[in-house]
Amino acid sequence: MNIMVTNDDGIHAAGLRALAEAMTELGTVTVVAPDRERSAVGHSLTLHSPLRIFELHRGWYAVDGTPTDCVNMGIHNMLPIKPDLVVSGINHGANLGDDVTYSGTVAAAMEANLMGIPAIAFSLATFEPGNHFTDAAQIAVQVARQVIAHGLPADTFLNVNIPNCPRDRMQPTLITRQGKRSFIGKIVDKTDPRGRKYFWVGSEEPRPDDEPGTDFHAIHRHHVSITPLHLDLTNHKSLPILSRWTF
Ligand code: MN
Questions:
Q1: Closest Cα to residue 104, out of 38, 54, 161?
Q2: Which residue from 68, 60, 56, 81 is spatially nearest to 16, judged by alpha carbons?
Q3: What is the whole-number distance in angstroms between the Cα of residue 109 and the centre of ligand 1?
Q4: What is the pLDDT of residues 55-88, one digit of tens each?
Q5: Where do the domains of the chain lie?
Q6: Residue 10, number of CB atoms within 10 A of its CB
Q7: pLDDT tens across 105-142, in order?
Q8: Domain 2-180+209-242's class?
Q9: Read out DSSP for 3-34?
Q10: 211 C-alpha vs ligand 1 centroid, how far in Å?
Q11: Is this prediction's pTM over 0.90?
Q12: Ligand 1 centre and the CA of 107: distance in Å?
């Protein structure tokens, strides 16, 4: 097994180290990750500036680009052969519901999926320091084993969220659907020491839905949540409605 590991929290993140170390149980690991934190960059690709690779030590590479750049560079320019599996994370903070569209962690798995490589995004559901990355990495190995054993359905990659607690306190793994959060959209508006206004986005806890079957519902009850995702954003239910319009 050749496993490529990436993230969006950057090459020095604790979650990346925990994931890369745990994955050595399953095969040869190559880490290709952003040289700094690139959270919430989504699926962005660097098109208008060059990219550079820095080898930190054997099998560990930093790229001065986005998570999507790392997957691209890793697969096309760096790894001697195409990896059998791409894992992204373990992100510091959950990626639940609509937030998957902002996530660089999820986008890295999406990029691998576009290249036809099985891919999994892992996130630890906390922003608190002093967290359970080692426990989460053991869950990641468990999920990766299942992916290796069964393969993934066509056009599918996995978004895995792990509760922030010791492994023996986690509830059983649930297969979930993507939930919705009611976006409060509050932006903090203050004045800096030089008298200029500044604004700070995303400073408030989102108010998620709590419908059974969703990723939010599972994580709030300390279950490991696995949501199968795909890239077709078409709203299939709306096709017959819109096709009645006249142009
Ligand atoms: Mn992140």
A1: 38
A2: 60
A3: 13
A4: 999 999 999 999 999 999 999 999 999 999 999 9
A5: 2-180+209-242
A6: 17
A7: 999 999 999 999 999 999 999 988 878 999 999 999 99
A8: alpha beta
A9: EEEE-SS-TT-HHHHHHHHHHTTTSEEEEEEE
A10: 25
A11: yes
A12: 11
